[in-house]
């Protein structure tokens, strides 16, 4: 079992490294349309987090948690996009440089709602961050179901990052509440 996990991790790391270098990676595993949609959804959901943190971080620049975590969210976006590339999920309509713009309507609505909530107050903005991370963790857990090992490994890594981000937002909320 340990050798299988190490082999899966090695494959995921090599795939990510090759994709990052602009190399095309193919896989013998074929995903269903629903699984491909899930890959794109997670990719876009990571962008929601990053874009929200960029926007709220600009509004509340004294809260460094937004700036710190948005950099990590870019890494999450890159990892999720690499999976899309590996499995041939179409991301051609997605432009990461357009902050606050999403192809998936429910994610556009989510972003708009989160920004509206976050603009109410600094504390509300921190609570939006907490909510995003809780939602990401839950969505990643569901997205893993039935996925190949390399996808599960990447999603586990993303969940670990989200747990760390959740701790960061909760710490910032505690500091804010104890001013």
Describe this structure in words.
With 179 residues, the protein is mostly helical. It has one domain (40-177): Ferritin (Up-down Bundle). It is built from 6 helices and no strands. This is DUF2202 domain-containing protein. Keywords: Signal. Residues 1-20 form the signal peptide. Pfam families: DUF2202 (PF09968).
CATH superfamily: Ferritin, core subunit, four-helix bundle
Helix content: over 70%
State the end-to-end distance: 49 Å
Could you list the spans in which at least 5 consecutive residues all have pLDDT below 50?
1-21
Search tags:
75% helix, 6 helices, single chain, globular, 179 residues, Ferritin, disordered N terminus, 0% strand, DUF2202, mainly alpha
Entry summary:
The protein has helices spanning about 1-20, 35-60, 65-85, 105-120, 120-145, 150-175. It is mostly helical and about 180 residues long.
Question: How are the secondary structure elements laid out?
Answer:
Blueprint: H1 2-20, H2 33-59, H3 64-87, H4 105-118, H5 122-143, H6 149-177
